[in-house]
## 1
Amino acid sequence: TESDKNARADETALAFLKNIDPEELALCYFRDELVTVSEGGTTVGEFTASIEKVTRSGEELILVHASSHGKVDDTPMGTTISTYLRPTGLQVVEQEHIEFVKVPGHELEKKTGIECDPETGDLTVKRIVTQGHEVRKSQHQFKADQVAGLVTEGTNLLLQRLFMRQGLSGEVCFITLDSDSGHLVKASYQPLPERSQKVGKKEIQVSGIERRVASVGDIPYTWQSFFMPDGHLTMRVQIGSPAIVTLEKVPRLIERDIPEPKPVFDKKRLMWEEDMEMNSRFLQRKEELKAGHEQYLRGHPDATALIADFFQFLLLRRPDDVVGFAAEFFSSFSPKNTPGKSFKARLV
């Protein structure tokens, strides 16, 4: 098995991460709710996965949160994942992954934490495995160039939604962390043929993706997942597991909104004089304004006298600068004007 320095993502995988469509990414922010069903058809657990945009320390990130809890062969087990990703390239900022199996007397818990150095891009992976009273700790560090194309368990949930929206035409190889050793191993994805799936009383068409993850000390792990066209998970099967994760109710399909083109109207000259109704309104409004002006002047005879005086002085002096002359004339009536000879006295 290729691991650590030898495990590398292929060019197709790196190109996919580099060219993620931001609009399609925005349509992946939703929640999946499914149930875990045993071979006999009994519901033995539940699976939820939510992806949302969040702001953390002033930076816009993607939060992936998933949990799976239930019983397999009457043994309680579960997984919880919380992953923070950068929208550009789905770079991992931080992840916490907890797995547990509660076999009486042989309880097992695995905690894996991933942190990315914000300056160098290097990753630190810390693992704590608790089995009964035994606790084992380990730590791995990877340079930024080693983890190009890394897909963690949290990233995987978002990546598969994007494959459904942007398309997956053939096998593509990323890298991921081996669940047992913490080393880097290959993770390949390839499309599965379209098929029909019965959800409740509805029959829907779904598309599938097979994910195959190498292992350092065991045979590869393989999952087959099926989705609606918008990325809603409808079924997930781990090869060799007696239980499957399946959908109970068909969710509403999420589609990209296509704005309708704005109507374009040819500009036409407004011939209001020829429109009887508009011409009538114009004349009516004109008379209303005229009546209002006349009423105001009748109630303020000093305004008429002031204007008459101004025009009288203007015609007597005939200044070249009419605006300056008007400013000087009317400023004499300001209460802030310095006492002195009146404007009229200075003009005579």
## 2
Amino acid sequence: MSPSRPLQIPLLIAPTAAGKSALALELAADPALGAALEVVSADAFTVYRGLDIGTAKPTAAEREAVPHHLLDVTEVTENYDVARYVREAEVAIADVLERGRVPLVVGGTTFYLAALLRGLPLTPPADPVERAAVEADLAERGLDALLADIAAHDPAEAVRMERNPRRVVRATEIYRRTGRYPGSFGTRPPQFQYAVTAFTRPGPELEARMQKRVETMFAAGWAEEAAWLAARLPADTVPRPTAWQALGYREAWAVHTGELDEAQATARIVLASRQYAKRQLTAMRSQLGAQVLTPRAAGVRFGEAARAAHKLSVN
């Protein structure tokens, strides 16, 4: 491999419901690549066993056609964080490369992808006692109060939290112990380099896809899947267990209990999906430095990156 042409791992990101998995699977079927592609997922919730419908996890047939990594690697009762993701993703990527194949990193969790690109954060390990105290503070004062505390010391860190309760608790815990927020600890160098491809669809088209996907999920039994999750984790725990932070599961649970009907839940989930997609697009540009393309242009660029990686991996 020439040092002037380092191997870059193809990485594909798009907002929720934009069709990134379908694009990756289409590329994997390209005969010119000799079925040499494997997908390394970058999704914070498909890692959980049992969360299949509401996370739009690849089907058994899709996983049979194209090997997937970092799906179903932990239980819903466990928290899965960015440090574990980066470690396991880099192991998966190295394994695929060692077998002479090409890993495609595909997902929408920008926090995970930014850590892959920049390197694993060097923050100290969690302190269960301090964390419990912060969680109690969150329950008493609320998320906005803790975010205001962070913003008073470091406005950029408060923005980086993206109103994620788990991140807010973690950042507050670290600050109380060290006087520093996670963003100030730096990172270790990333193990690989990446060729980033990002895309989206026009707003009305993306919203229509969101609507159709949510309806399809409910028809497939999403409410029952949410009930399965509720039987294993209390839905009202503060801060919410990581699995309950997956988009739409609380609404799906409300359908199961009769608090909402499917139409009401669908409307709420589509609205939340639109808001999430906007945050994803902002993060794609600001955190990943990505140019956001059309699906067609992204397909061309992603294919070029995969073919370049394939050529280098077999030489």
## 3
Amino acid sequence: MNKKLTLPEDMELLRTRVRNALGNVRQASPRHMPYNVYAFSGERLYRAGELPEYYLVFFVLKELLGFADLGQDEKVAWSFPVELRETLYHIEYRKMGLGIFSHSGSRGDAAEIARALFSAVKAARPWFAWRAAGAVAASKLNVTNHCASLYRRYDYLLRLYRKACAGMLRAQRRPARVADDDISHTFTEAMKQLARAQRFRQRANWLALSAIEAFFSWTEHLFVHLAIVAQGCGRGEEVASLAEADWQDKFNRALDTRQPDIKLFYDELICVRRQLRNVIAHGAFGKNREAFSFHSQTGAVPVNLPLYGKPGKYSLSGELAFDEDEVISLIERFITCLQNSVYAPAMFYLLESGLPTILTHASDGTYAHAMQSMAKMKVLVEHLTEKFDRAANMDW
């Protein structure tokens, strides 16, 4: 039975297990020198998709086992020469992804190397967890930015909602065809028209609920990034905790509720979240018995009486009815406020650049400097975009 490892005390034991997991795959021996004569040009025998993630392979071979890395070349980030039964192979991360390459090897042997890499990665899991925890503690992190795609989801549902509202209005305004000699036909047409308007009404209600859900999903993500870019939240452990926090805690960390307009939006939005979003998210039952009624001599009475719970502005009925126009208007005003406030440079970074947020830039003042104006933020975005593009293209 394998001993449970405690890192970093058991690091040598872990390295032994990972070396054993590699089986017959070894670092290339001196008889294959010089390695670089054969590097960067061999036939690709195995490719990304058939191998572990490139960064896991790099960590195992370079940082854990100390294999020799031939370094960068044109469109190549790194290359590890290895051997299997005296045949030379190169494990390389190129622009087209990770691969196993060789001038004289076979795909069958490359498959054995691939299996060995998977085994080594599995054996190294305790070290990966320890390594990741250390990176979080040191705040050397990038946080993936999905703000733009989440916002596009909200915007898509909002446009569908408005389209359904327009369809309902057209159905309501269209006069029924009147036939003096056939009253029953006229009545039938009117009922069909009313039913069509009701279908649009139901569709608009569903789409409004979906748009509100999408808005809160977007802001759950947005507020974490705003805390980093606009508020200088640069500690990895704090960001990790914030990502797991409640929506209201994220709002208060990202935005200054001492500002009257921000505080007003907070009060209104938290009311929407509690009375609408939370009910839908909990299967239309809600957290406070919103879907229950008790028996009385006057019939069924909601369990959540005003004296029992807290009356609110946005009420739910048995049909989940509410003034969706009012809620959507509130959300749109809040988004406009963010985009035209001191948070505008951060909103540009998060919605327009597609860049991750970088905790070291929060802690060293880079974001604080860029937040001084939109012009400074655009300069930072251009600089970072160029650096990320060069890295992605492996243009060293």
